[in-house]
Amino acid sequence: MTTIQSVCAALPGLSEETLRRWLAQDWVRADGTAGQPAFAEIDVARVRLILELHTELEVEEPTLPLVLSLLDQLYATRAQLRLVLDSLDAPVREALAESLVR
Q1: What is the number of structural domains in the chain?
Q2: Are residues 69 and 89 in the same domain?
């Protein structure tokens, strides 16, 4: 688990104040207490994503919740499709792959 200070030190341009605001807005989740959040690797990846959306792609903060919601839906759909694909027999999976290539 990584501390809020470590996350901010690893990501230039990210302040503790900003990260705490993102936590309060529930854009990022972390374990631990409210005063001392602890971030797993997946949490740090989400912080990095939000930072890149905001700084590099210039997505404004009021728009970020919509973008994050759409990305979360996309990832959930991909996970569900992976489960469906994994549950198919090999011949059905191959036939499906062939029909998608056409």
Answers
A1: 2
A2: yes
Q: List Cα–Cα distances, 84 to 75, 93, 95, in angstroms.
A: 14, 10, 14
User: What is the C-alpha to C-alpha distance for residues 37 and 61, in angstroms, rounded to an integer?
Assistant: 22
50/1 same-domain check: yes
Alpha-carbon span 26 to 19, nearest angstrom: 10
Prediction pTM value:
0.81
The SS3 assignment for 37 reads strand
Packing angle of the helix pair 64-87, 41-55 (nearest 10 deg) = 130
Q: How confident is the model at residue 24 (pLDDT cuts 50, 70, 90)?
A: very high
1 and 50 housed in the same domain: yes
